[in-house]
Write a structure and sequence with these properties.
402 residues, 16 helices, 14% strand, binds 4'-deoxy-4'-aminopyridoxal-5'-phosphate
Length: 402
């Protein structure tokens, strides 16, 4: 008898399942709007010019494949922290940010979850928005935190449920951890306004909650690095201690290179040294040390003035292509096709994803009748749309909602 005879089959991953159905579909019109990876105007994966240039520079400079330190490439982590917190950030200038490289954003969240589970002195419960990125729930549970939720999305109005959010955070036990999507909330595409962020910061302060930011889309949301970092920088300026998970998957297109960083703002350099030592103790038995190539690419881009400004315009280009698609869908549905319903949210949402408001039976019909694949909750990855397929997409939406 096999040792694994009693292992039950688990459910398939909801997003990877979509990609499989898409692959099996033989229609030439098929569109995959499930996976959250940027596609160019021809629907193809996109490697940034600055990434190619950085790779050339690295090939010429780095002769070996030696291990990185446990917390990764020091130039990379310093530049990643600078990108997120900004040059005039108080903890940054005081040497009071403890930062480590991570296996992209997922790994950063996981290191943070493990660190909080081990060292956070208050309630080890983390509040996640409903809905949230599906992986947050098992990730924090497996890190050893108790997962709870706060209201975020108003289904009725396809908007932020700000009253629900405030009331749930106000009734959370003091000292709880709260996970905040720094920008481009996944899956809704709906972010708080700067004014709402200021109120959230006040509520977090009043209830002594601990803010943990997940920033997987800096620059990718608005096209502007500083603007997308507003929430994180505002909280830090307001005197909060924060935890931060960063990913370079989207804004540098480094998906498979697994390039990210986890950081904590701390009291002073002495405390930083103690926290750094504990981050190493958490990371060492997990994977020893992180992969080098992606961190070298990101570090090269962030550390070179000319490459950095070219990268800024490439990020802006990706964000703007997505914003253009939003405007196009909105105008096709509202003006050209006169599709029943209110579609303003498609235009006002931000980032890679849009919650269309399509119901599960309608998303099923989109796949079966139109060969267009998306998650059952009606989320689409805007990046899968382009000038060649957006008209067909809008007509297909029109057909399923009538
Ligand atoms: N957080 C959110 C909200 C995300 O959408 C993603 C990417 N889908 C991640 C974290 C992490 O992605 P990665 O591990 O590829 O950086």
């Amino acid at each position: 008898l096999s040792s694994w005879a009693n292992v039950p089959a688990g459910p398939p991953d909801p997003i990877l399942g979509i990609s499989e159905a898409f692959k099996a579909d033989k229609s030439p019109r098929k569109i995959n709007l499930g996976v959250g990876a940027y596609r160019d105007e021809h629907g193809k994966p996109y490697v940034l010019q600055t990434v190619k240039k950085a790779e050339e520079a690295i090939r010429d400079q780095i002769p070996d494949k030696e291990y990185l330190p446990i917390t990764g490439l020091p130039e990379f982590t310093a530049r990643a922290a600078l990108l997120a917190y900004g040059a005039d950030s108080d903890p940054l200038t005081r040497g009071a940010i403890s930062v480590t490289q991570s296996i992209s954003g997922t790994g950063a969240l996981r290191i943070g979850g493990a660190f909080l589970a081990r060292h956070y002195p208050h309630a080890k419960a983390i509040y996640l928005p409903t809905p949230t990125w599906g992986n947050h729930i098992p990730l924090f549970r497996d890190s050893g935190l108790e997962v709870r939720s706060y209201r975020y999305f108003d289904k009725e109005n396809v908007s932020l449920d700000f009253e629900g959010l405030k009331s749930d955070l106000l009734s959370a036990p003091e000292g709880s951890v709260v996970l905040l999507h720094a920008c481009a909330h996944n899956p809704t595409g709906i972010d708080p306004t700067p004014e709402q962020w200021a109120i959230i910061s006040d509520v977090v302060k009043e209830k002594k909650l601990f803010p943990f930011f997940d920033m997987a889309y800096q620059g990718f949301a608005s096209g502007d690095i500083a603007r997308d970092a507003f929430a994180v920088r505002h909280f830090v300026a307001q005197g909060h201690q924060v935890a931060l998970a960063q990913s370079f998957a989207k804004n540098m297109g480094l998906y498979g290179e697994r390039t990210g960083a986890f950081s904590l703002t701390v009291a002073d350099p002495e405390e930083k040294a103690r926290v750094d030592s504990q981050l190493k103790i958490i990371i060492r038995p997990m994977y020893s040390n992180p992969p080098a190539h992606g961190a070298r690419i990101a570090s090269t881009i962030l550390g070179d003035t000319a490459l950095y400004s070219q990268w800024e315009s490439e990020v802006k280009g990706m964000a703007e292509r997505i914003i253009t698609m939003r405007e196009k869908i909105y105008s096709l549905l509202t003006h050209d096709l006169k599709t029943p319903g209110e579609w303003g949210h498609i235009k006002s949402q931000i980032g890679m994803f849009s919650f269309t408001g399509l119901k599960p039976d309608q998303t099923k019909a989109m796949a079966e009748k139109a060969h267009i694949y998306m998650t059952a909750d009606g989320r689409i990855s805007m990046a899968g749309l382009n000038a060649g397929n957006v008209q067909y997409f809008a007509e297909s939406v029109d057909a399923v909602v009538r």
